[in-house]
Amino acid sequence: MIKARVKQAVLTIFLVLIAGFLALYLGQDQLSSLLVRHHQVTLSPKTVRHNQAKTKQASYQFDQVQPLSLANLSQAALAQHQIAAVGKLVIPEVGVNLPIALGVGNDVLAFAAGTLNPVQAMGKSNYALAGHHMAQDETVLFGPLVKTSLGMVAYVTDMTTVYAYQIYARRYVSATSVEVLEATTQPELTLVTCDDDGTGRLIIQARLVQKMRVTKAPNALQKLIAKE
Asked: What is the DSSP letter of 8?
C-alpha cells in the first residue's frame, strides 16, 4: 500500500510539473481529463473507519463549489492526502467507479463523489452524493450519469458492506431545487451533477434493493470495488 501511494504521489507531481509543457500540445480540457484519470485514492476498511471520524471537518457548501479547471485540478492533485475517502460508488453499466469522500470541497469533487450531508449514512434515509460533470469528457467523474437509465443498479460500499440501489427516476431540475436532498422514509440514493451547460442539475434517484457483505458480492463486483 505504501509503495502504491508513493508511486501515485510521484506520478501526480510529475503530471502537475509538466502541465505547462503538455498544454502546448494538448488542450486544457484534454489535460484536465488526464489529471482526473491518473489520480488514485487507496481505500480499505481501515482507512474508511479512520476517515469517518472527520465528518465535521468537511465542507458541505455545495453552492460554493467552483467549476473544474486545469488550475484547480492541479492544486487538488497536490492536496490528494486531504481527501477523506469513506467508500466507493460503482455503476458498472455506465463505467462509474469513484471513491466517495466527505463533503463537497473543491479538492474532493476534483477526484471523487462527495457527500452532501454530514449526518447521512449508507443504507439509511437519503444518501446523497454530488459529482462534477465534465462536458468535454463524459467518461470521467459523474459524466457517465447522462447515460444511465431506469432499472440500472448503483452500488455504494464502505468497503465492508455493499448497498445496491436500483434507479427509479432521473430528471433535470434547476440549480436551486434542494428538495431532492431531503430525508426519506425508505433508504434511497440520490446522485447530483450539473447538466450540459452547468445551469441546472441532473438528478438520479434510486431505491435500496439489496445489502450484502463485500465478501459475499459477485466476483465481478468485488473486482470493481477493489480497483484503484
From this structure: H
**152 φ/ψ sector (left φ>0, alpha ψ -120 to 50, else beta):** beta
Lookup: cell for 111: 477526484
* CB of 62 closer than 8 Å to CB of 78: no
Q: What does the DSSP 8-state code read for residue 106?
A: H
User: What ranges do the domains of the chain cover?
Assistant: 44-65+83-226
Give pLDDT tens digits along the chain (228 positions). 555 555 555 555 555 554 444 444 444 555 556 555 556 677 888 889 888 888 877 888 777 666 666 666 656 665 555 678 999 999 999 999 999 999 988 788 888 899 999 999 999 999 999 998 877 778 888 989 999 999 999 999 999 999 999 999 999 988 777 888 899 999 999 999 987 666 788 999 999 999 999 999 999 999 999 987
- According to CATH, the superfamily of the domain at 44-65+83-226 is Sortase (2.40.260.10)
Q: Residue 195: how many CA atoms within 13 Å on its side-chain side?
A: 12
CB 182 within 8 A of CB 145: no
- Residue 180 CA to residue 157 CA, distance in Å, equals 22
